[in-house]
Structure formats: structure tokens, C-alpha cells
Amino acid sequence: MSDLVKRSLSLSGHRTSVALEPEFWAVLDQMATERALSFAALVASIDAKRTPDRPLASALRVAALMDARKTGDD
């Protein structure tokens, strides 16, 4: 995998940064486009569903993986 890429965004009124591999960012960007959401809205929805013990970066990776697996079943 490639080096991590950091993105900054606001969640619940707080600025935060998340570092992920470009491949995960690409899937997340595609998810936002397909759902007609802003990137921030997609991340906020994933953030709202995660358990407190799961880091945001991990939740984003899992969401991207689940979406890619769903798409691969077509």
C-alpha cells in the first residue's frame, strides 16, 4: 500500500484529521458521490455509527471495505 494521506475536516463542530491510504480515500470519495453526499456528510454518518472504542480511521477503513465487498458481489 501507499503512504498515508491526511485529510482535515469538521465533525460535530470540531476539527480533526484522519490519515488513510489513498486507496481507502478513493473508495470513500466514490461512496459519497454515489450517495449524493458531501464528503464531510459521509464521514459524519460513519462517525455517528461507530462505537466509542473504534478509532475514526478504523471505522472509515471498515466502511470502505464493506462498500467494496458489496460492490464486488454484483
From TrEMBL:
Residue ranges of every copy of the Ribbon-helix-helix domain listed in the record: 5-66
Record-linked InterPro entries: RHH_dom (IPR027373), RHH_sf (IPR038268)
Protein name: Ribbon-helix-helix domain-containing protein
Organism annotation: Gluconobacter cerinus
